[in-house]
Write a structure and sequence with these properties.
It is a single chain. It contains 2 helices and no strands. The chain is an all-alpha fold. It has one domain. The protein is rod-shaped and about 60 Å long. The protein starts with a helix and ends with a helix. Keywords: Membrane, Transmembrane, Transmembrane helix.
């Protein structure tokens, strides 16, 4: 039973960290684009 709980909690944590990373990385291309536009 404990193994099932561990795997479930690990899945939740990994999904949460993936969502967190996607939230962080979403504005990143826009940031790079704005820098590139300033350099041109």
């Amino acid at each position: 039973m404990n193994v099932v709980v561990d795997s479930l909690s690990w899945k939740v944590v990994s999904m949460g960290s993936l969502a967190f990373l996607s939230i962080i990385w979403q504005p990143f291309p826009l940031y790079i684009q704005s820098i590139a536009n300033k350099m041109i």
